[in-house]
Amino acid sequence: MREIKFRGKSFKTGKMVYGFLIIEESTKCFIHWTENDEMKAENVIPETVGQYTGLPDKNGKDIYEGDIVDGGKGEIFYCDKSAMFKVRWHDKIYKNVRCCNPSYNNGEKLFMNAAIAWEVIGNIYENPELLK
Questions:
Q1: CB contact at 8 A, 65 and 78
Q2: Residue 26 dihedral angles phi and psi, to the nearest 5°
Q3: Which residues make Cβ contacts (< 8 Å) with residue 102, sequence separation at least 6?
Q4: In whole angstroms, what is the distance from residue 78 CA to residue 101 CA?
Q5: Which residues contact 61 (CB under 8 A, 6 or more apart)?
Q6: In this predicted model, what pLDDT tens digit does every residue of 3-33 receive, in sequence order?
Q7: Positive or negative torsion for Cα 26, 23, 127, 122
Q8: What is the C-alpha to C-alpha distance for residues 123 and 102, in angstroms, rounded to an integer?
């Protein structure tokens, strides 16, 4: 089973924070984490919240929704229609690349094999120019 975690861009610092997502009053998003046995929380911009895919890139870095990967500058996104993570390469969606859906073992292997070869080079919130 994959670890469920999120990240989002802090309103206060403008930096990405990582941890558990809590949504309050359907308009405020907070990322919570533990640091030195103390619970911390940061109010994040809702549009920047992304979930961990459950896979690392070739350098062992966690891949999140909104990440940009090399090899054609692909964007990782979650497809509600098929209920899985996918990669959009310059606005073309490759439907055979999927992960994190236990009913699609072949697709999961395809994504895992591809993810091992990819490198996260940024994300769409801090580095949108990488997609151009």
A1: yes
A2: 55, 10
A3: 108
A4: 11
A5: 119, 120
A6: 899 999 999 999 999 999 999 877 799 999 9
A7: negative
A8: 26
* Cα R_g (the chain), whole angstroms: 15
pLDDT tens sequence across 75-99: 898 888 888 888 887 655 554 444 4
Tokens of 71: 């090899």
Residue 126 confidence (pLDDT)? 92
Can you tell me the distance from the alpha carbon of 9 to that of 30, in angstroms, rounded to the nearest whole number?
10
> Across residues 65-71, what is the average pLDDT?
86
Tokens of 80: 């509600």
With tokens 């359907």, the residue in question is 26
pTM listed for this prediction: 0.79
Report yes or no: 116 and 58 within 8 Å, Cβ to Cβ: yes
- In the block, which residue shows the tokens 């996104």? 77
- Ranges of beta strands (E only) in 36-83 are 38-44, 50-56, 62-64, 67-69, 74-79
What structural domains does the chain harbor? 6-47 (no CATH), 51-131 (2.30.30.290)
